[in-house]
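Why Fructose-2,6-bisphosphatase? Reviewers of the renewal asked for a concrete example.
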Amino acid sequence: MFIECSALLSTRLTLICHARTVAQKLARFPTNEPVENQPLKLGALATQFANASLLSCGPELRTRQTAEWFGAAPQVDAALRDCDWGRWHGQAIKDLQVHEADALQAWISDPQAAPHGGESVMQLGERVARWLTSLQGVPGHIVAITHPFVVRAALMQVMQGAGFNAVDVEPLSVVELRFNGIWRLRLPGIDHAGAL
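Here is what the prediction returned.
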């Protein structure tokens, strides 16, 4: 009986990063830019999540446009908004490496730092943690279209403490790790040709 009740009340959350923007291609901090005006073959992906009980997205144009490709009117959730980049909105990372190298390094190495005057990584993590807590009693499948940093923050909440036992690896799963000074987990997305 307990197993049946807990199964009925389980929450399934699928986080999907918004489609590519020009700012991402140019390695710039985002503004409220649209997704690239190139067609994506999202049919299989949209069909996979067609029976979700809730489709939500961040308030930015790029998340709303991506959510619309799933064929339902998304519920805009402010908790899924991108990190507040302060005065770095629209700035190229390579320009910051030249003109604000110390500030950029402080932001990368210290999760409490917010040299751009916006939201720190720690503040973003706290916001995402509150959002995840609010979903714990919501049964059904929630699909949330959001931003790379929000997805990262959610993954860090799941991985805290008992990281090894908090990861399920399904058959034919693909996990990509890349090393460029530090090891990074790379979650492959769907490309413009529709391949994973």
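Residues 1-7, 192-196 have pLDDT under 50 and may be disordered. This is the kind of structural detail the renewal will allow us to pursue systematically.
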